[in-house]
Amino acid sequence: MKESPSPLETLHEIRDMMEKSSRFLSLSGLSGVFAGVFALAGATAAYRFLGIGILEPAYHRYAYDADYINISFIKFFLIDAALVLVAALSAGIYFTARKAKKQGQSLWGFTARRLVFSMMIPLVAGGLFCLALVYHGAIGLAAPATLIFYGLALLNGSQYTLHDVRYLGITEIILGILASFFIGYGLLCWAVGFGVMHILYGAIMYYKYER
Fold this sequence. Notes:
The chain crosses the membrane at residues 24-49, 69-95, 115-135, 141-158, 165-184. Keywords: Membrane, Transmembrane, Transmembrane helix. The structure is a single chain. By secondary structure, the protein is mainly alpha-helical. The protein has one domain (25-210). 76% of the residues lie in helices and 0% in strands.
């Protein structure tokens, strides 16, 4: 005769069911890894465009030199950022959809929509703010601003997905604040935040939840 589950096991099952119904748990760690790889590729292209080394501050190039900031300069960085964004989103959608299918969870269900909408406000506001910075010639603050607003978006969205996301968000905000004070190293902080930290986070999430 099959034993009935203990009250503690029943409580755990109820908690898991409630968590699955209120949180989108299909975010794949591999999407973070690939997003980090694409970000590092974009940062490498930016360093080559600027003609500086990774640890070399870029004060003389993009932070304050108004003569250096021309249309071709802005066009390169906008295209570079757009390519990184499209590649990262594509990888994220692919790996998340694959994981959601394995788990039998809808890719665009109620919890997924709540996650996306909760992140959109900081991301859209941050994107418009960065465009304003570029428009006014304060391009050296654009990289710190992207880190800060992205971190805020992760914190806002962490309530609808894995709790671990909040730690990545806090890290991005800290890097953004540091980059705001050391503008010459904004691109380096951007590469660490969007590149290295995404790879580390994605690898940890993959081994923690998907293996």
